[in-house]
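Predict the 3D structure for this chain.
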Amino acid sequence: MGTGAAPNDANVCMGQLEDRFVYRTPWYNHIIHWISFINDIFLIWKGGDSDSLNTFIEYLNSVVLSIKFTHEMSSTTMNFLDTKLKSWRTVTATDVYQKPTDTHPYTCIGRQHIHHF
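Done. Predicted structure below.
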């Protein structure tokens, strides 16, 4: 990310964007969890239709033209940072996630952790 201050600047910028364009909108009532780390966001959206989520993403993409939000939707599996989250009823499992663009310059042995709630 360039200089050592770049992650801090990104966090401040995204924090201000979230405060103004996420937490103070009518869509905020649909957000169950919004967890962000620099430019990665984990969002749990309540509501039966994907149209409201798509409208929210379009809105976010219109407020700051230099920042573009993309998303993946699933009711069972989600990738966040380097973790794949899986959920089946009351069991949640995690596994290592690698982006398709990863060149694998290191050796990694994946482990699966299962958490019962």
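The chain is about 25% helix and 30% strand.
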